[in-house]
Structure prediction request, 299 residues.
Amino acid sequence: MWDSYKNGFKGYLQLERSLSDHSVDAYLHDIEKLTQFLTISDSGKNPGNIELKDLQHFVKWISELGMSQTSQARIISGIRSFYKYCLIEQICIKDPTLLLDAPKTKRKLPDTLSFEEIELVIAQIDQSTPEGGRNKAILETMYSCGLRVTEVINLKISGIYPDLGFIRVTGKGDKERLVPIGKDAIKYILLYKNHIRVHQIVQKNNEDILFLNKGGKGLSRVMIFYIIKEMVRKAGIKKVVSPHTFRHSFATHLVEGGADLRAVQEMLGHESITTTEIYTHLDRDYLRDTLQRFHPAFK
Prediction:
């Protein structure tokens, strides 16, 4: 009975929301959990006649299965998306998830590097080697544009617009966006492209990939992690640093500098502003300093 609803939802996720296969599978897995519960409880209900109390019993059931609060919250989020689809398609006339409480999850904010620490990490790169010239361009680009690790390894030469100061990035769900890029990052990209990459033998289907390994193929995600880990070690920084730290630092530094949250959302490629909000944590010293500088009671 639910197969037609699942197929319709799958098409909606692929065509309307342009999600990746991995994301679509995750959403469908969430709905599979719900239908599994309905089968076990022998309710025989379809999406149009499920009520809030049914979903509350479902949440209790997945909790009793021993799922973590994070996993529970993700499943509930998937069911909320399913009901958005159901409303659009008029499969139901009201959304039973509106008053459904999800378990509160603690969001652990990743470490942030200061601008000085970013510079210190990048300064560890030995630019006298071809790999060093490439790595310099990679890290400058990651910090300049706040890219995800997958986005940087998939950057295309045809997507670099040095005269305009923009790069074209393919993000989650294969959605493209134009991101401003700083002059230093552009300079090191061009140095790498015109003086290092040109001397490499490029493997088939990698002709337009910007950053290549020694074998002439695109880099792996693991390689980016390794490059950053090694430079952080050389810099003597004890924080937990990953490629995502560069993205998080990019966004945090923008917000601390007074950037509009919507602009940051656009540059990061977030579909929802609520996702961007986790990048806007401001440390207590910064908040105290701002209050002392601008609030009349502290002058």
Observations:
- The chain has a mean pLDDT of 87.
- The chain is about 55% helix and 5% strand.
